Amino acid sequence: xxxxxxxxxxxxxxxxxxxxxxxxxxxxxxxxxxxxxxxxxxxxxxxxxxxxxxxxxxxxxxxxxxxxxxxxxxxxxxxxxxxxxxxxxxxxxxxxxxxxxxx
Length: 103
Description:
Blueprint: E1 4-14, E2 19-28, E3 31-40, H1 47-62, E4 69-72, H2 93-102
Antiparallel strand pairs: 1-2, 2-3, 3-4
């Protein structure tokens, strides 16, 4: 069974559409799933009402084939932390790129 919890981020009010908009992130065993969500409501709506509306819309979008969403897979176990190479010059970008490529 997949466990998940949701987090609402970057809440904005779109006055032209008269709705709240946010990016809702579902943290699951399969990774993070981010879903764009909107909820039509007046600006003076209660925080709890807006939160429930955004989550309901995100759940609906999550379970349908419509809407904008992105999935980030969980990170694989990483090796020990490597220190970046010492720079001979403050603008030695090529050494930094070689180090990043090796990571």
